[in-house]
Amino acid sequence: MKALRGEDFVTRKITKAVAEFELGRTEPLMLGNLESLRDWGSSEDYVEGMWLMLQHRKADDFILATGEAKSVRDFVIRAFEHVGISVEWQGEGDQEQGINRKTGQILVTVDPALYRPKEVKHLLGDATKARLQLGWKPRTTFDDLISQMVNADRAHLHTKTSQESSWPKQAG
Q: How far is the C-alpha of 52 from the C-alpha of 171, rounded, in Å?
């Protein structure tokens, strides 16, 4: 499975930064509202649900969701934990920072410019109808999703780094 999303998705922004920190990144990851709650799910699970909808005897509306809301902060913590980094939070609001508990390196800062003024703070779906009528339920857990995404970014960056280091050096 290729677990890469576009870099404009906050999940991808986080997992890419985590992979880069493993390779020596020093610039903090800038995020907006750490408290935004989302029903994070896997596209593979959702595509399976869409396929089941198409197989259903009668056209109908269904909601596909995990039924669990986790914050952007939760996503950040779990992504860094996946690579063995423990994040400690210091400060409040716009001054809050995520710090590497072991080294003291600033990993995450809050940038008010990244807040979305019309953002819904809490998005959570109820897939009961899909479960009862289609037999659908998500198989990918929150932690599995993060692991897949971080590992995909690690592999992507490793490939990119390997290709860059294998280019012939120009004589100068």
A: 59
Sites in the chain below the pLDDT cut of 50: 1, 172
Q: What is the largest CA-CA distance in the chain?
A: 69
What pLDDT was estimated at residue 1?
47
* Residue pair 28/108 in contact by the 8 Å Cβ criterion: yes
The CB-side HSE value for 33 (13 A sphere, CA atoms) comes to 14
DSSP β-ladder status, 106-110 and 29-31 = parallel
- Domain total in the chain: 1
Give residues with Cβ within 8 angstroms of 1, minimum separation 6. Answer: 44, 148
Q: What is the pLDDT of residue 167?
A: 53
Structure-token pair, residue 77: 């913590």
Neighbours of 50 (CB within 10 A): 13
Residue in this structure with the two tokens 């960056």, named with its chain if needed: 157
Are the C-beta atoms of residues 51 and 65 closer than 8 Å to each other?
no
What CATH number does the domain containing 40 carry?
3.90.25.10
